[in-house]
Amino acid sequence: MAKEKNINITMDSIQRAGKTVSVLMDGESEIGSIEPADAKFAAYLSGNADPQLFKSEEEAVTYLLSAYHLHKH
Description:
alpha+beta; five-stranded antiparallel β-sheet; about 20% helix; globular
């Protein structure tokens, strides 16, 4: 049986290049960031310069968490 592992993910708003962006963190490690892009939200995985566009911030958060979980475990 696999052991469950609890992780603590936080989301904070910070200023980057004059824009307010939401940053998802796992402790001290950045998972990714989300910024408004016209009527959509651009989600950037940490270390990736190409964004994925979503209709809502919630969809962008779900994408970042899914990608993090996929690559982390």
